[in-house]
Amino acid sequence: MGPPAKSAPIIIVGAGIFGLSTALHLARRGYTNVTVFDKQPYDRTGYSYLEGCDAASADLNKIIRSAYGSQTEYQELTFEAIEAWKRWNDELASGTDLPPGMTTKDRVFINCGNLSMADGDMLPEFEKATIRTMEECGHRDTQLVTTDARHIEIAKSKGMNFAMDPFQRQTRGRANVGVLDSSGGVAIADKACRMALHKARRAGVRFILDPTAGAFVSLVRNASGRVSGIVTKDEKYHNAHLTLMACGGWTPSLLPALDGLCEATAGSVVMYKIPKASPLWHRFAPENFPTWMWKMRDGAEGGLYGFPRDEHGHVKIGYRGTKYTNPCPQADGVERSVPVTRWTEGDKLTQIPAQAMRVIRRFVDEYLPELAHEGIDVALTRVCWYTDSFDNHFVVDRVPDTEGLFVATGGSGHAFKYLPNIGNWVVDVIEGVDLNRAAIRAWKWRHLGDNMPSNVLMEGKKGARALGNVVLATGTVSKGNRAML
Ligand SMILES: Cc1cc2nc3c(=O)[nH]c(=O)nc-3n(C[C@H](O)[C@H](O)[C@H](O)COP(=O)(O)OP(=O)(O)OC[C@H]3O[C@@H](n4cnc5c(N)ncnc54)[C@H](O)[C@@H]3O)c2cc1C
Question: What is the bridge-based pairing of β-strands 34-38 and 10-13?
């Protein structure tokens, strides 16, 4: 199948980062009949978790880092993205075409750096590989080791010294071993999605964002088995020459062909809220505090990451040390993990697992004792759904043996940063342009075969990570902050 005609009807299901970015880049390449469906009324809710959005992309903030060990395909993709993030900031500052509700003061990317911390005295292999690879690829002195005197001077010259020891480890007499990715920082996730939505609309994309009219129910196939469109919850049929499924954590249960390749897994998130009058307001501002990761690849007792405060004072910390699942029997009898959140219809999940809370609290006690000194406790928790592939690579390809159907998913915890540019690559895949690039090869439809998976998928209801077998935290929401819910 060659590339679709520029006027051919194209449907994208899902307005998370994969759907938004693909829609934007399809329109930029001259496709004139692109429609995005989503069950979330994002025009009303503005991609805010607090307003009932539970997609991975609908969030306060996300980490942007180009540090990727030896994985140059993602490293270079991030540098490409960062250039685009800066252009988006410039567009906002210019005020020429502001998205609804945003001002010239808004930014979607803040270059506050991302500090990756180790527990002991040694840099982990991943960080060492990043430093080597960056040097080889011409990105010298972007990665700054916290214990290296020359690097500390470079951090000072970049105005990023605050990010070399944000937890004041040295003054507390503790080890402070880590690497600051000075190219990275924080994406303001909800605003960035709103901006992408606005840009795509301006470029001519149609959006149906509605719990009924926008909710995908099923694919429609013609007599030869080719996918010819979708049916939505209002029982309407929508014709398409090409349908792209980009439903994040919901994709594996909507597209059973992904069995064994992708699975929805839960991450655990807590938010503290710093009052504006607190002395910590200034300390945790993104001008003074980086995004950070702690023991990210060290299993259940590590896997933490966090952010400077947002404009409302939220300081968010996430736990990824255990990837929880929610296996549910599907119509075909197979158990697939389906996202469940505070906002799910019917049975909801309002607490994070106790294990996640314990690891977060232990870290906060040791690294951020000033929160307790100021009487600031967890204000809100969130279970947030990733779409993991078995090897942590994205999945961007046509669905085998199903003409007319593509998929863009498998974000595996690291796709948000590519909101401005991933769609350009997805369109290349759709058009068959330069498919031999390393990233595109990594994203191809694939099978585990004899390889060792990075993520073990589909362990089912009996698995130790299934939420039904996991103790949940209780009493995590402090009384004073209940109003936030
Ligand atoms: C807790 C957490 C932290 C993360 N941190 C980072 C980070 O720091 N940096 C980073 O780069 N990445 C991060 N990621 C990963 C990143 O957020 C994801 O890879 C990315 O947002 C996935 O986008 P998506 O478009 O695949 O899915 P989603 O954002 O989940 O969007 C899917 C969309 O599909 C819609 N949908 C689902 N079912 C239907 C249906 N039946 N009909 C219509 N619409 C439907 C949903 O409403 C949703 O809008 C994180 C992810 C999580 C969960």
Answer: parallel
Probe residue for ligand 1, chosen from 21, 35, 38, 383 as the CB with the greatest number of ligand atoms within 8 Å: 38
Q: What is the pLDDT of residue 476?
A: 46
Atom nearest to 215 CA in ligand 1: 42
| 328 beta partners | 336
Q: Which atom of ligand 1 is nearest to the CA of 214?
A: 43
Strands 114-117 and 178-181: antiparallel
Pick the CATH number of 262-389+462-484 from 3.40.50.1820, 3.30.9.10, 3.40.1190.10, 3.90.550.10: 3.30.9.10
Question: How many whole angstroms from 413 Cα to the centroid of ligand 1?
Answer: 9
Atom of ligand 1 nearest to the CA of 247: 34
Cβ atoms of 180 and 143 closer than 8 Å: yes
Longest C-alpha distance within the chain, in Å?
A: 71
Atom of ligand 1 nearest to the CA of 411: 19
**pTM score above 0.85:** yes
Q: Would you call 152 helix, strand, or coil by DSSP?
A: helix
Distance CA 47, CA 207 (A): 14
The strand pair at 109-110 and 61-64 is best described as unpaired
Q: Which residues line ligand 1 (CB under 6 A)?
A: 13-19, 37-40, 55-57, 62-63, 214-216, 246-250, 267, 269, 318, 384-387, 409, 411, 413-417
- pLDDT for the residue 119: 83
Nearest to 455 by CA among 290, 360, 326, 322: 322
What CATH architecture does domain 10-62+189-260+391-442 belong to? 3-Layer(bba) Sandwich (3.50)
Residue 122 CA to ligand 1 centre (angstroms): 34
Mutation choice for ligand 1 from 109, 236, 247, 392, CB with most ligand atoms inside 8 A = 247
CB neighbour burial string for 89-124, b if at least 16 within 10 angstroms, e if fewer: bebbeeeeeebeebeeebbbbbbbbbbbbbeeeebb
**pLDDT per residue over 151-163, tens digit each?**
999 999 999 999 9
CA–centroid distance, residue 284 to ligand 1 (Å): 26
- Domain ranges in the chain are 10-62+189-260+391-442, 114-182, 262-389+462-484
- pLDDT of 1: 67
